[in-house]
Write a structure and sequence with these properties.
This protein is an alpha+beta fold. The protein folds into two domains: 290 residues, no CATH class; 49 residues, Nuclear Transport Factor 2, Chain: A, CATH 3.10.450.750. The protein has twelve helices and 13 strands. The chain has an eight-stranded mixed β-sheet with strand order 5-4-6-7-11-12-3-13, with helices on both faces. Strands 8-9-10 form a three-stranded antiparallel β-sheet, with no helix packed on it. Helix 5 packs across helix 11. The longest helix is centred in the last third of the chain and has 19 residues. The chain is globular. It starts with 8 loop residues before the first helix and ends with a helix.
């Protein structure tokens, strides 16, 4: 009888990185017990002699991911055909009530408001969010106070190794109850770690709250920012906000538009891994939030787990949010459903 060969970083290199499906979530790097995996561009790389422990392989959400196992872990059941964007306990339209959040955040500022309440109520003792440097290169940031959340609010549109931020919160900040914000692929990484037979226990236990962002795709930094934005005569350091609105990609400096182009013009910069993703609404999060299906200045919010639903309602009760139910017959709900179906169809017809 032949023994199965160990699953090592070399397997991830072959099956994920070279195959173009690495999402740069940071899970393998965060879990490496020898700290031998580090970012190189927008992918992990081995910087020393591998210890052959197999841990990195079994954290990756792009190998051996079981949708059914994760749904049972979160909900004690699997999703039904009549749940068009995953299991939920309620869908809402909402916005933050605090003006400083509204002025800094994307859409309704719901994510920042939820994290602010979670910190204040001691549900979490740190939040891992996506920050950026002066040239709009995304990076994970550990937020331990309200001002950190407000400072890092807003969407960045290029990938960040969020799970490395979780490792930093544990090792450098000594935090044990961590909330994180991530795109669907990053939320998949959280659940892979929490359900894997070789899941990293410290990471799994510390990740207390997961807030997922609606996401159709992200863009390669070197192509979108380094090449394209600068080719338009725009200094990235002058950009204060970016957004995707009504089929356009827009960059602002304060209230002034620096760039406003059809979204199709930046399609060539979409990362290959995004074309293999079929999850638009971050179905495995505790709460999912996005700017589709709601009026300007608001967010669509899907409460998925019992924990997520309780957080949402408690934040509303405490005055951090205003909410109303989004019903299945409303245009906004239908739009979210259609976008979810469109992303699934894109994966089906556009394999790498």
């Amino acid at each position: 009888m032949l023994l199965e060969r160990p699953k090592l970083f070399g397997n991830l290199t072959t099956q994920v990185i070279r195959a173009g499906t690495c999402t740069f979530c940071g899970a393998c790097m965060a879990a490496c017990p020898m700290n031998l995996l580090w970012p190189a561009g927008e992918q992990p790389t081995l910087v020393g002699a591998c210890a052959l422990c197999e841990i990195c392989y079994y954290q990756c959400p792009n190998v051996e991911f079981s949708k059914e196992d994760v749904e049972m872990f979160l909900h004690n059941r699997t999703s039904r055909p009549d749940e068009p964007f995953g299991i939920s306990r309620g869908t809402f339209v909402g916005k933050a009530t605090r003006k400083e959040i509204q002025s800094q955040a994307q859409d309704g500022g719901v994510v920042t408001a939820l994290l602010a309440y979670a910190l204040e109520s001691k549900m979490i003792d740190a939040a891992v969010v996506t920050g950026r440097d002066s040239k709009w290169k995304s990076k994970p940031e550990v937020a331990t106070k309200y001002s950190d959340l407000v400072k890092n609010a807003g969407t960045k549109y290029t990938p960040s190794p969020t799970l490395l931020g979780v490792r930093s919160a544990i090792d450098e900040y000594m935090k044990t109850k961590i909330g994180l914000v991530g795109t669907p692929c990053q939320i998949r990484a959280v659940r892979r770690i929490q359900t894997s037979p070789l899941g990293h226990s410290r990471l799994a236990q510390a990740m207390t709250l997961s807030i997922g962002l609606f996401c159709m795709e992200s863009y390669a930094y070197d192509k979108l920012i380094d090449a394209y934005v600068t080719s338009k005569g725009i200094d990235p350091t002058t950009v204060t906000r970016m957004g995707i609105k009504k089929g356009s990609f827009i960059a602002w400096s304060g209230e002034n538009e620096l760039l406003h182009v059809p979204l199709k013009e930046v399609d060539a910069f979409v990362r290959n891994s995004c074309k293999q993703c079929d999850d638009f609404t971050a179905e495995y999060a505790d709460i999912s939030v996005g700017g589709i299906g709601c009026p300007t200045g608001y967010s669509t919010v899907i409460a998925r787990t019992e924990k997520g639903f309780e957080l949402l309602k408690n934040a509303e009760k405490a005055g951090f949010l205003e909410l109303r139910e989004l019903k299945p017959e409303e245009k906004g709900y239908i739009k979210v459903t259609n976008m979810s179906q469109a992303k699934r169809l894109r994966k089906a017809i556009k394999p790498i």
